Structure formats: C-alpha cells, structure tokens
Amino acid sequence: MEDERMNFVLESNRSIIHTVTEFVLLGFSGNMEMQNLLFSLILVAYIMTLLGNGAIVCAVKWDKQFHTPMYILLGNFAFLEIWYVSSTVPNMLANFLSETKTISFSGCFFQFYSFFSLGNTECFFLSVMAYDRYLAICRPLHYPTIMTGWVCAALISACWVGGFLYYPVPIVLISQLPFCGPNIIDHFVCEQGPLLALICVPAPNIKLICYTLNSMIIFGSLLPILGSYALVLRAVLRVPSGAGRRKAFSTCGSHLMVVSLFYGTLMVMYVTPTSGNAAEMQKIVTLMYSVVTPLLNPLIYSLRNKDMKNALRKVLGGLKISQSS
Questions:
Q1: Which of 1, 177, 217, 279 is the least buried, fewest Cβ under 10 Å from its Cβ?
Q2: Residue 168's CB: how many other CB atoms inside 10 A?
Q3: What is the spatial distance between Cα 137 and Cα 140, in angstroms, rounded to a whole number?
Q4: For the whole prediction, is pTM greater than 0.70?
Q5: CA torsion, points 160, 163, 169, 171, in degrees to nearest 10?
C-alpha cells in the first residue's frame, strides 16, 4: 500500500500534512544489462579507489622519508578520499541490487551531511596543500620554520573540524521542512538540490543560504589556491635552470590537475544554474567529483612522483606501476 510510506501529522491549524519517512533513490536509468554494467564499473572503481588511496596512506605512515608536511598532507588527503567515496558508493551499489531502492529519512540526511562535510573538508585540504607548495617554492629558506610539525598538525585539524562544522545548520533546517510527497529522488545520492525539490512549502531563504554557503566554500577555497599558484608560477619562471623549472612544475602539476577536476565539476553542480540540466547530466557530474576524482588522485600523484611510485610499489607488494612519460 503506497500510504505505508507516509505518516500523517495533524498540525495546529488542523490541516493534514504527509510526512515522508523514507525516500526512493532512483539511481541511473537503463535496462538490466546497463544496470549490471554500471554496477560492475562502479564496483571496480570503488575497489581501485580504496586500494590506491589506502596504499598512499600506508606509504606515508610506514616510510620515514614521507614524514614531511607535503606528504603528511597528501596522506590525510588520501584518507579523506577513502571516506568521501565511501559516503555514497556502497549505498549506490546496494541500490543497484535492490528492488525498492529506499533509504530512511534519517539515513538520507546522514548521507547528505557526511557527503557535504567530507566535500568541504576536501576543499580545505586542497587550499592548505596549495599554501604548502607556495611556501616550499616561493619561500624555501623560511619553509622549515613556518611549516613546522605543530603548524602542519594544526592545519590538518582545522581542515577536518572546519569541514564537519561548516554545513550542519542548513542541513538541519532542510530536515525540519515538511516533505509531503512524492518521496522519489531522481539521483543516486541524497543531495541538496533533489531534496529541496521535494519540500511542499516555499523556502527561498533556506535556498539562498545553501547557495551562499556553497559559493563561499567553493570560491573561498579556490581563490587562495589560484593565488598561491599564481605566485608559484611567477617564482618558477624566474628560475634560471630549465631542470629546476621542470621539477617545480612537476611538483605542482599533479595538485593542479586534482584541483581542476574537482572544482570544475563542483562549480557546474553548485554555482552555475542547474535547474535546466537533465537529471541524468546532474548524476554524471556528481559521479565525476564523487567517484572519478578520488579514483584518479592516486594515479595523478604517484605517476608524477618517483619516490611515491617506489613506495607504492613496495606497499602493493611489487605491483608494477607504469612509468610516466
């Protein structure tokens, strides 16, 4: 019976409002063959993401040559990516095998909170990693005294704590809004846009708060990254040695590739107007920054770093890693 998913609440004004107790995540459309193919591809991507980022975490932890701020930040970033991809993919894979594709109200908002909080944490880490590269290249003599172990630990703690404290207020506000039905989310993750589309009362102020916070976290972290690398580029161009310039570009190139992949898709999703985009396109964009980017990060960082390649080869038990051209 369809009304089993609804709980009727009598408000003070005696009007009846349907309160949704669970949501249906439609996921990706397609026939059974397409669903099986997507399940296999995403499962392989998830396993590779766990292995790649887990190997970086182990390499940084076990190899003393990586006990420096740059690699400690990278190790934390890889650890973050494991949790970031795990906030969505396991439930997505379960939905491929489920007939009902349901998620509880509280489970949906917990996923919403964890997904956004981990994404915010990633933005903060990318900013701190850019600042670290700026200090290492533009102020090399002062780098050991500025980026001390204590400062590095404080920045890492600020990233984690700030990421999880940035977005709970709008999530709580959205959860208090009436969801009258339907309870169908045309997405594979409980996310801001699809949830706001299901509320049965106008909420322009909350939508404005969400848009403002999204813009602040994206541009507030992206602008320092661009500023840091503008200064790095200026410093690198002044290096007389061609070998020195190549080494500096190689050090920063991997980080810039990650920044471009992550922020490019984030801005398409949360800053540019998306109401006119097809639901399937929104799913693909979300898949890019939530699944594809964490998968590519270990490859991007390891292929551009000989020391990391050697360490990963040891961690993975002699697994051959292709040489960068």
A1: 1
A2: 12
A3: 6
A4: yes
A5: -110
